[in-house]
Task: structure prediction
Amino acid sequence: MRILLTAFEPFGGADSNITQSVLSLLPDSIADWAIEKVCLPVNFKRAPIVLREAIAAYSPDLVIMLGQCPTGENIRLERFAINMMDSTKGDNDGYIPNEETIYDDQPLALQTPLPIKELERFCTDNVQPVQVSNSAGLYVCNRVYYEALLLHKQAIFVHIPKDMPASMPANTLVMMLKEKLV
Ligand code: PCA
Result:
């Protein structure tokens, strides 16, 4: 069985993205599940293409996506991806979408089928506080989450506050995977 685990490159002029540090701390396998790691560009057009190629190349059983969020104290498990792109700041190529629908023929929102409330409880009780979130925003993270849920279904997006020590989300992800997902 295979897991595709994605992170993002830095964006907004920063020189790092916590998700890359978390990715580097995670093992290449858990139990008998192999983990394939891919770093996505912060680019509305290219990120979904890179994700699609990774899914086609690797045929994962599970897709776990990591994104950095600027605020908040806790790791957030995203319930929905929304069929819209909107931003006041450009992506890494300077593209600024204005309430753009991603796919005209697809639903307004897609929901992860993974048991996120159970995951929230398990992590909070056993590792660190984790919370379910109902919006991943309308920036690039939401864009690729929509693509993942459309293409693959067994996908979850995890938003990580940028100032958290990377070892904390890395430990939480390992525990969550070992005990609940693989
Ligand atoms: N966070 C941004 C995009 C890349 C990342 O790590 C977001 O929340 O959309």
About this structure: The chain has one domain: 2-181. Helices lie at 18-25, 46-58, 116-126, 140-151, 167-181. Residues 120 and 130 are 5 Å apart (CA to CA). The longest strand covers residues 33-40.
